[in-house]
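Z., the sequence and structure:
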Amino acid sequence: METTTYHHQHAVASATHQEDTSVWAKAEESRYGINMLVIGLVIMFGSIAAPYAVNLGDIQFALVIFPTVFSLILVMGLAPLKMIVYTAAFALAMNLIIFFMGALG
């Protein structure tokens, strides 16, 4: 006598749906608006700080140009929004510091 055994697996789907309510998840919904805001602010403050940075020296000019361009590259490359915002904040901080150094010095 021959015995045949069948094994069945059943997938059970969960009825609960968890929504991601973090700030970054909500910001992803308006990603393109935030990207335009980042582009506008970074270009505006970078172009104001650049003439002062040229007069201060090469290192100060690099501290304005590299973070500014890198944040714009991240926007164009559709990097994660968190990375874009942090890089843009760093670029804006460098631009403001260099601007005040040049304007007050």
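The CA atoms of residues 57 and 66 lie 14 Å apart. The two ends are 99 Å apart (CA to CA).

Let me know what you think.
H.
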